[in-house]
Automatic annotation (TrEMBL):
Residues 1-15 form the signal peptide. Keywords: Cell adhesion, Disulfide bond, Extracellular matrix, Glycoprotein, Leucine-rich repeat, Proteoglycan, Repeat, Secreted, Signal, Sulfation. GO terms for biological process: cell adhesion. It comes from the Eukaryota. May be implicated in biomineralization processes. Has a function in binding of osteoblasts via the alpha(V)beta(3)-integrin. Pfam families: LRR_1, LRR_8, LRRNT. The gene is Omd. Residues 386-416 are annotated as: Disordered. It comes from Aegotheles bennettii. It is found in: Secreted, Extracellular space, Extracellular matrix. This is Osteomodulin. Belongs to the small leucine-rich proteoglycan (SLRP) family. SLRP class II subfamily. Residues 58-92 form the LRRNT domain. InterPro entries: Leu-rich_rpt, Leu-rich_rpt_typical-subtyp, LRR_dom_sf, LRRNT, SLRP.
Length: 416
């Protein structure tokens, strides 16, 4: 009996080995054996290039250099008034939330491969930046200088730069050649400065062929920025004084995905202004609109709260129904308008994917805001989704106006 048991165990082990061999093979994988395919042979003498660091990694005494991230140096939130000497191996340098006023070249004298500098939330002044210093950092990809005291654009900058954040400064001018030497910029943030229309007359963004996101919110613009590059996908113009959009303004901006123009002075918008094939989010809240416009097939989220709209004309939004090109609109926010009745049910034929219409309070009575019978209309929601949506609106009811402005100032992290 013992021999039989041993043989059974051996048999089971053998079967398991065979099963495991077949388990590792995916029968659904396609195998394409081409005539030009050459076998790959492992070369034991080949070694991957691994950067060599001193051990322990050199680090400024004022900062922290985690062993798990040997290319990064963290000097943030340390009440620093000067920039410490930077070891030559550092690629990511974090100096945000300090009291730094000047950026001299000295601490960076040995730096070769610096790719990211975060100097946000300091007290840096333009005239205290060593002229031409940033331009010498030929590997720099990201530069964070938001929340400082810059009076001018910090040019010259390296041509390698891809993301430049200059929000919350005092910049009032863009030198004619400031942006010409930055062909690789994909994201430019100039929100919360003092830029006006005169700055944009020279069309400073026209040659930025790779620009995908442009933030100009919280400035002093009265007209739309001219001659934006066709590569643009995200445009932020909230909190300006823009009163109109030229009829064919977006004709060359067919890649736009998100457009934010809340808190402006828009009154009338030409019917086909937003007939864009890729537009997903459109925020026109807190303007002076009295009627709507054509809604493109791609649009999913529409924000028109805080306007003077008395009725929502679905025919303007959807002149015809095309079963082969169903519109994708899922969410509309229309609170703080002058609506006295819900949106016509015809909307659900034009926009069959609508899941939420947020009516909230309406400004029909000057002295007292009124509320439609149902402040939130929701359909096609699972119980979990319905509960989540209710919680979201409850949260918004408790938010302050500053919270909403803070949310509007920038795109979500995904866009940044």
């Amino acid at each position: 009996m013992g021999i039989v048991s041993q043989l059974s165990i051996i048999h089971l082990l053998w079967a398991a080995m065979v099963f495991c061999q077949y388990e590792d093979y995916d029968f659904e994988d396609d195998y394409d054996e081409s005539d030009n395919q050459h076998p790959y042979y492992f070369n034991p003498n080949t070694q991957a290039e691994v950067p060599h660091f001193p051990f322990p990694v050199q680090c400024a005494k004022e900062c922290f250099c985690p062993p798990a991230f040997p290319l990064s140096m963290y000097c943030d939130h340390r009440k620093l008034k000067t920039i410490p000497n930077i070891p030559n191996h550092v690629q990511q340098l974090y100096l945000q939330n300090n009291d730094i006023e000047a950026v001299p070249a000295g601490p960076f004298i040995n730096v070769t491969f610096l790719r990211e500098i975060n100097l946000s939330h300091n007290k840096i002044k333009y005239h205290l930046i060593d002229h031409g210093f940033f331009a010498k950092l030929s590997s720099l990809v990201q530069l964070h200088l938001q929340h400082n005291e810059l009076e001018e654009f910090p040019s010259p900058l390296p041509s390698s730069l891809e993301r430049l954040l200059l929000g919350f400064n005092k910049i009032s001018q863009l030198p004619g050649n400031a942006l010409e030497g930055l062909p690789n910029i994909t994201m430019l943030d100039l929100c919360s400065n003092v830029l006006d229309d005169s700055v944009l007359k020279g069309k400073p963004f026209s040659n930025m062929k790779n620009l995908m996101q442009l933030n100009l919110c919280n400035n002093k613009l009265q007209t739309m920025p001219p001659d934006l590059p066709s590569s643009l996908m995200h445009l932020s113009l909230e909190n300006n004084s823009i009163s109109y959009i030229p009829e064919n303004y977006f004709n060359r901006l067919q890649k736009i995905i998100a457009l934010r123009m809340s808190h402006n002075n828009l009154q009338n918008i030409p019917q086909n202004t937003f007939n864009l094939p890729n537009l997903l989010e459109l925020n026109l809240g807190h303007n002076k609109l009295k009627q709507l416009f054509y809604i493109p097939r791609s649009l999913q989220h529409l924000y028109i709260e805080g306007n003077d709209i008395e009725t929502i004309n679905i025919t303007l939004m959807c002149p015809s129904i095309d079963p082969m090109n169903i519109k994708q609109l899922t969410y509309i926010r229309v609170d703080q308008n002058r609506l006295t009745a819900p949106i016509s049910t015809y909307a659900f034929f034009c926009f069959p994917h609508i899941r939420t219409i947020y009516y909230g309070e309406q400004n029909v009575n000057v002295n007292k805001p009124t509320q439609l019978r149902r402040p939130v209309f929701q359909r096609f929601l699972t119980p979990e989704e319905y509960h989540e949506a209710e919680e979201d609106h409850e949260t918004r009811d408790h938010e302050t106006e500053e919270d909403h402005e803070s949310e509007d100032n920038y795109f979500h992290p995904y866009f940044q």
